[in-house]
Amino acid sequence: MKKSVKYISLLLVFSLMSGMCACSKSTEETTSSKKKKKKATTTTTVEETTIDPIEEELETAVPAESFEDINLETDLNVTVNIDGSLGIEPGTELTVTQMEEEVIEEMGAHCTAYDITLGDYHELDGFVDVRIPYDPANIPEGQDPAKCVGAMYLNEETSEWEPVLFEVDAEKQELVIYTDHFSTYGCFEFKNEGMRNCYVSAINDYMVDKDTDVKEYLEAVKEIVDNEGIPGQKCKELMRPYLEQTFNSFAEMNLQTGSTTTYITNLTTLFITGSGLDTKIANNELTNGMNTALGKAGMAVSILSLATMALKENKTDNEIVSMYKDAVYLLASLTGEATLGTIAASVWCIDYTITEMGNYAYNKVKETLTRAYRYYMTTNNNWHGKPRTLKDWRKILKQVAKDAALNRDSAEEAIMDEIDRYCNEFWTIPDDQLAEIYDQVGSGGHGIPDAATKQAITDEFKGELLDSLQAVFGAVQRDLEFELWEEQQKRIENIRKILNTRITVDINEVRPNDRPSHYAGYTAVFSKLNEAAVTDDWKIVLDSNGGAQFPVIFIAYLLVGAPEEIWVYSPGQKIGEEEPELKVEFNLIAPKTNVPLELVVNEVYETAIVAEHMDDGATVWWYSKGARIYDQNSNATSDAYAYYMTLKGQILTGVPMEMACSGGPGTVCIDGYTTDESGAQTPFSYSADTSIKQEIIFPAGAKSAVVNLHCHTACITLTLDIVSNYTIGG
Fold first, then answer.
1. pTM exceeds 0.85
2. Average pLDDT over the chain, rounded to whole?
């Protein structure tokens, strides 16, 4: 058998052309005095050198060809470590292109992107380690660089940076990325820890609380089982430290004074339990989504924590093992949770098999009896085909473990069953073919072994195979644990996505018949902000149509007090000191919240200018903004009133003349006339028995109007200046 020795040759190629980084380029240059990283490319090739082959007898042929691990280093200080069982072919070329360093102001970060390719390999059958350097010089003084750096990968389809599993090696000043595909990876050096927490989290950050007693995870898992796969309050409570940290980080970095500890605690409780704050946001769709997302994330945290800590340290604890198995096999059978359950069940399956492997013992068999068996199992022959490599075993073991997740009763034995099936395959072929193989290898004189000898030959080969697979099992176990991390990361990212939801608050004046805007130039202010808010950031001047679009980020909205009203101030009013002209309640809805501004025309104004009592008991009330006729009981209802309003010298459209009064036929009347520029008058008249609601259309060219409102013996006359030609009435 030939053996190979792998070595690395390096070739550094600097690009002469400047390239665009995957990061959005800032319009401002970095203030750092250090030299920025420039675009450069390095190529590293894995080559194979053969040495004199070593003759190997069939009796000692190994069950599976092994591979050496690959460590690829580059002159750009980017290193890729690849497990040998992934079977990367010799001659494969690793190319790393370092993009020019950029500053992303909105993220408060420096970004250096690295485009990494490995020949034709893109998606891998397992995880590799990619190490990229970070520059502490980009971190402001006083900050811990290890807590201010993070990694993301560029999604080629969306051109968006997305989370990736990573850790920080502070000693080597490197980010260690764990990935099963090659892509463009970004090293982000944030100005502080809070900004990093707003965008990314290191892999060890996802362990919500390392000091959490294993019993808390166990209770959360028990709750999952009791609820038939639905996470409960204990799962959500596991996410409390993460959520509070997220709120505190955002508040510290983006708000005026930071929110109070009590408010953030209550806000977190609201999302976890649905109570804690008396606010409309408690029944908001986003809040309900957060509650669900917290439960799913807490479920993943509890499962992962048991898989990576409790099971490893407490394999003999029947309560932990049993509860873990109850939960993961249940989840594997549920739509929506099958991925998490299947991976978690596979982790247990592999872990169980590794333990069983340690208990396996076998004896050596007389070599001459093994020749035919090993010829069949270890060579590319007509009967068996190409033997399995460690790369093959890595894929097969992982798939067997996942397939077994839906059958709890046989899951633990599934991998050993597959190994046994493979090792016993030789004995399942017909006797005449067995005889041919024995003759082929020169062992025909020994005859076909009896059952006991067959078992001994198989057990010996199986034992050697298990020895060869030790590293593969470790690699598969590592892969599955990383897959669990990724599943948990997705769920935590769902929380981050909800908190970062962008909502447009669309403020619009309601203007029937396109009447001129009343609120143009007014200022709309989100009301009842807490002390953390910068008030000027939460107000906007309305445009000529009385409208505005105000962008809101959900987490910012929450931390400034989750305001539920918009107050509208006229020009010249002192905001926050005087009573606003209009208050409008709203409920935040993603992606767009509509806030209509309507003129309140049926209000009773508090200050009367003139009051006259009529003979029939009706009362005419004159106000600074209009006139009303009330019935004799002074009821301001739609049954008995007439009104018209003038504001800023303009006629308000969309408001019909409406009047009602008790009495005989013809007692309710609206009449009058309009006058044009030449002085010519055009009369109009409308009447009804007891009530009337009438639109009045002024003719073109009308400049003024006299409107008489008759109710029994009462009459109100309004003299109006017509600033444009439109309809009174809706």
1. no
2. 77
